[in-house]
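Following up on my earlier thread - several people asked me to post the actual chain instead of describing it. Fair enough. Here it is, all 503 residues.
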Amino acid sequence: MIRGRISLRSVLAGWLGAGLCACGQLGRVELGREVAIARHMRDGEEYHTPVGELIAYGRRLFEARWTIQEGAGRPMCKGTGAALTDATEPLVFPRAFNRVSGPDANSCAGCHNIPYAGGSGEFVTNAMVMAQRFDFADFDGADRRPARCSVDERGRSVTLEDIGDSRRTPALYGAGFIEVLAREMTADLVAIRDSVPLGGSAELVTKGIHFGVLQRGTDGSWDTGLVEGLPMPSLASRGPRDPPDLAVRPWGQSGQFRTLREFTVNAFNQHHGMQPVEMAGAGTDPDGDGVKNELTRADITAVVLFEAALPVPAAQTPKSAAEREAAALGRREFRQIGCAECHVPLLPLGRRDRWFVASGPYDGLGSLRGGDKPVVSVDLTSAATAGPRLRPDSDGGVWVPAFTDLKLHDITSGPGDPNAEPVDPGRTPGTAAFFAGNRRFLTRRLWGVASTPPYFHHGQFTTMREAVLAHSGEALRSRMEFGRLGAYERDAVIEFLKTLVVR
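Reply from S.P.:
Thanks for posting it. Predicted structure:
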């Protein structure tokens, strides 16, 4: 971890004195400006600011309500970062906001706020995943007609079902531990991959989680047909002899992102129209709003550290004896009926790998890649980070009670299941496979589940019981076993889930 002597207070005082604008230029303080963050952190400051103060600054950025004067909005840019298909219709008032294709929010905390900043969101905060590939999705159809939106990137008109998937806002509590787990698991899978000889195969197992079998031809080609639980980008190869990256991608409900940094950089552009320098490039204005360097590299590092250092959810002891007895039984039944096969209660971290690095070798998709610059990191078990923490055991290891296997599973009964989705974010937009639909979702992290409604990937269930009863596909057996339980035992499972809270 890189620490220094400069406090955030002194840094801010320096910025105020220098009159550093959001665009990175020096000048006097401008009266009448309406901005959420008056002075942004300069690149390089993050390497000399104590981590606790970086995290506090990151929280300010996470909660900031961005304005047009500091770069909010993206008049000439899609949520993907590409230029608009139709440059004659820029995204300015009254097209500056769009609840489907974005920008759709003023701040990160506007959606991530249950029960407090960094959490989940109500149904009204759902995002339309994949809709950001459109300039501006508008609807002119009557209730009984297929609603239509503006043209896609190929210039064709599409129906509502083709636009994207409505996804609930996920909670980020304990995010640092989840990412470190995913990085360790990816490293394990890559090591197994690199040991596969020509004409051989290997079982992909990490932390007791099975990801299927990887095969290699005698000509050096790779066959991922028996690999399971990884998103399509993790299995793709540039060429037949190029190995798949096998990355465990814990962010996005279908595993779109490898790291919090990737997730954050892309979210700022899509949802707020704030372009990070590491996506847009220093000194450029790709969205044509007249503001350059809207979010510095140091800004993104601070936000990512805030997200990573969010408190971990913790089990809560029920108040009454009846509830405690039921919750204890429910925990046993949870395992007995097979829920714990995917919602794995505990996953181990390496003894010395308790550090979250704000940029690493798995960052991409427009974000800062590890090795480009020095790193800033935080010990996730340190008392310096606020809220409940996981602590090393007597052997120096850390066990993460996230109740997930970080795998993708098909939990629907097929395309006709209302819980399936019309487009597959793991496929290339516009292809037949893309429109065939998505039925695979990351195993939800159940720690904190009782404090972060609504439920399921679409956020249309108001109770955990509804979510349990909606499981099908690979989870059908467990759901049926739940249904075979007596009424008291079913209630006991719910009482157990109610103990998994955010404090």
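The chain has a mean pLDDT of 87. That should answer part of your original question.
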